Amino acid sequence: MSSTDTSIASPFLRLPGEIREYIYYHVLCSVDNRRQQADGYKSYKYDLNLLLVNRQIYYEARTVFRRNNIFVSIETPWPEAQQHVAVEGFVPLLITGDRAEHFTHHHLAVTINTRDHQSFPRQPRRFVILLDDLVTFCEMWFYSDLTYPGLNAHLHLTLRLQDPYALSFEDHFIPKALQKRLLEPFSMVKSLFEVCVQGPHYNSLEKTMREKMAEPYLTPSQCLEDATRLKDEGNAALQKNEYQAAIRLYDQSFLAIHIIVCGRRRSIWADAYFQTQLTTGPFAGQHAQL
Fold this sequence. Notes:
Oligomer: single chain
Radius of gyration: 23 Å
Number of strands: 9
Structural class: alpha/beta
Helix content: 25-40%
Order of helices and strands: HHEEHEHHEEHEHEHHHEE
Strand order of the largest sheet: 5-3-4-6-7
Mean pLDDT: 90
Strand content: 15-25%
């Protein structure tokens, strides 16, 4: 049976293209395939059988899948990094192991290495995440540097952008809006030894990212002042019986001192960052951890 005959025989293919695309989106987009697990963990479970129906549906659905699932490949020299990212950072890993080593459909390749990586070479480990979770990955890195001060000063970061689906004769330039989503999360990663951005990209986006990287962390005094202000606002909301607003403000208060609350789980970061005597502000003369 020809593709034309299939289209005539299939009620689905007689639907307008816009409706078919809407259906493809909800079957294949990351949001509708995300599974929220206990204590803040999440995973993804895709059913790609739709792509096996026939040639026309394959090409139509593949276009929607590629548009709504942007992949980021991350490479590090430490075998324990993968578990750290998934377990402590709550970042869902989409592809690991040999499949990640051979995966090429990523728009961004992130390579993290040490200053002495050429003198002491290690077997790199790769894993793949979705762009949707890149902010969570960078937040985990942000908190890791606060927890282990001086860590980033030994790290080299390479960000290589590419269009994995462009043909050899086509323009490999990624749209600016997508480039921004790929580069902007790294703005919160500070004090790195070296940062290199490769592949065709807008220099203005790289410049903005580097400027934000150069901004210093809030001081422990500033963090505590913000946390106290938000706690007081939460108390005021509670007095007005605005319970949801109060909970949101309390969560933000914890976040200001780098305690992440998710349901019944609390992740406490940056202990080392608060191991200091405060000299300014309303808490001057006190130890930050107390």
